[in-house]
TrEMBL record:
<keyword id="KW-0444">Lipid biosynthesis</keyword>
<feature type="binding site">
    <location>
        <position position="257"/>
    </location>
    <ligand>
        <name>NADPH</name>
    </ligand>
</feature>
<feature type="binding site">
    <location>
        <position position="50"/>
    </location>
    <ligand>
        <name>NADPH</name>
    </ligand>
</feature>
<feature type="binding site">
    <location>
        <position position="257"/>
    </location>
    <ligand>
        <name>NAD(+)</name>
    </ligand>
</feature>
<dbReference type="GO" id="GO:0046168">
    <property type="term" value="P:glycerol-3-phosphate catabolic process"/>
</dbReference>
<comment type="similarity">
    <text>Belongs to the NAD-dependent glycerol-3-phosphate dehydrogenase family.</text>
</comment>
<dbReference type="InterPro" id="IPR013328">
    <property type="entry name" value="6PGD_dom2"/>
</dbReference>
<dbReference type="GO" id="GO:0046167">
    <property type="term" value="P:glycerol-3-phosphate biosynthetic process"/>
</dbReference>
<dbReference type="InterPro" id="IPR011128">
    <property type="entry name" value="G3P_DH_NAD-dep_N"/>
</dbReference>
<keyword id="KW-0560">Oxidoreductase</keyword>
<protein>
    <recommendedName>
        <fullName>Glycerol-3-phosphate dehydrogenase [NAD(P)+]</fullName>
        <ecNumber>1.1.1.94</ecNumber>
    </recommendedName>
</protein>
<keyword id="KW-0521">NADP</keyword>
<feature type="binding site">
    <location>
        <position position="107"/>
    </location>
    <ligand>
        <name>sn-glycerol 3-phosphate</name>
    </ligand>
</feature>
<dbReference type="InterPro" id="IPR008927">
    <property type="entry name" value="6-PGluconate_DH-like_C_sf"/>
</dbReference>
<feature type="binding site">
    <location>
        <position position="33"/>
    </location>
    <ligand>
        <name>NADPH</name>
    </ligand>
</feature>
<feature type="binding site">
    <location>
        <position position="13"/>
    </location>
    <ligand>
        <name>NADPH</name>
    </ligand>
</feature>
<feature type="binding site">
    <location>
        <position position="107"/>
    </location>
    <ligand>
        <name>NADPH</name>
    </ligand>
</feature>
Length: 346
């Protein structure tokens, strides 16, 4: 087994990472569903649908054949949306070397099971296989990584040696990688911030200002942390790249699909109209449903998540949701999360 790297998926993030690793000198092969994309990547060194304007090294190759892509691979990177993770994993497992490391980049929660991606992986690949699993998260829009702009991310894994191995694979002078042992917290932070980005987008679509956005981001981080602590995550993780870092970039960036979707909903479009117009996966929609279920399971108050859920799936008017948030019963700011953090450390 050599140092060949497989990347499953040909969306914007998968393409940006493929370009990054290929430029580092790794032999990289991408898997895409579309033969048209494969031809474009192999013959014209560009993915015009998902990452236009980013040159792909000629040694980077793509294929629609999963077995061909993952055979003899030391590292298998999942760049598919979270809702497709289980199916692709099932298809690829028979062909993957037993010592290969799996790296997941999807930020989501499986809607029916409420599983994080590591839990899906463990269920399909076996409990022991989790020792070869890692997740990458953090403020990292594909458009900027593709342009080789300075970016920092975090990799989390159950095994420190695996996290450090993945860190070494991805690290460049423009792509800095930290490690974190809190796999649960890193996965939750990466997934749940998309819900808050939908909310800040709705706020922008309604014509509200920076005060509103800052309030949503701050209180959104509080409820993300609250759920994370209830599930057993380290509260400090949410003050890091997978928490506040990813939250900031997703809630404010022009590249954010979740924010863009929220803007359209705030302007009066239906969820279906919005998703059809964006024509790419908006992870926060399914994650909102999943987080709504987790909040109920762990009996955690998540008012922004709850009202975003009602706007997306129950027909609640965005302005009514804002009014409900602003007229909630008075409460304290710091004590709720601080007390939970103290309990976590006991």
């Amino acid at each position: 087994m050599g140092n060949k790297i497989a990347i499953l998926g040909a969306g914007s993030w998968a393409t940006a990472l493929a370009a990054l690793l290929s430029k580092k000198g790794y032999p990289v092969m991408m898997w895409a569903r579309s033969q048209e994309q494969v031809t474009q990547i192999n013959n014209f060194q560009e993915n015009t649908r998902y990452l236009p304007g980013v040159f792909l090294p000629p040694q980077l190759m793509a294929s629609t054949n999963l077995e061909e892509v993952v055979s003899d691979c030391k590292t298998v990177i999942f760049g598919t949306p979270s809702h497709a993770f289980r199916k692709i994993l099932q298809e690829v497992l028979p062909y993957v070397h037993k010592e290969a490391v799996f790296v997941n980049t999807a930020k989501g929660i499986e809607e029916d099971s409420l599983y994080r991606m590591s839990e899906v992986f463990m269920q399909e690949a076996g409990t022991q296989s989790l020792s070869r699993y890692a997740a990458i998260s953090g403020p990292s829009h594909a458009e900027e990584v593709g342009q080789n702009l300075p970016t920092t991310v975090v990799v989390a894994a159950k095994e420190k040696i695996v996290a450090e191995q993945v860190q070494d694979i991805f690290m460049t002078d423009m792509f800095r990688v930290y490690t974190n042992p809190d796999l649960l917290g890193v996965e939750l932070g990466g997934a749940l911030k998309n819900i808050i980005a939908l909310g800040t987008g709705i706020s922008d679509g309604l014509g509200f200002g920076d005060n509103t956005k800052a309030a949503l981001m701050t209180r959104g981080l509080a409820e993300i942390t609250r759920l994370g602590i209830a599930m057993g995550a380290n509260p400090l993780t949410f003050a890091g790249l997978a928490g506040v870092g990813d939250l900031i970039v997703t809630c404010t960036s022009v590249h954010s699909r979740n924010r863009r979707a929220g803007i359209e909903i705030g302007r009066g479009k239906s969820l279906q109209e919005t998703l059809s117009g964006i024509n790419m996966v908006v992870e926060g929609v399914r994650t909102t449903a999943g987080a709504h279920g987790l909040a109920q399971r762990y009996d955690v108050k998540m008012p922004i998540t709850e009202l975003t859920y009602e706007v997306l799936f129950k027909g609640l008017a965005p302005l009514t949701a804002v009014n409900k948030l602003m007229t909630r019963l008075k409460t304290h700011e710091v004590e709720e999360v601080a007390l939970a953090a103290v309990n976590w450390t006991k």
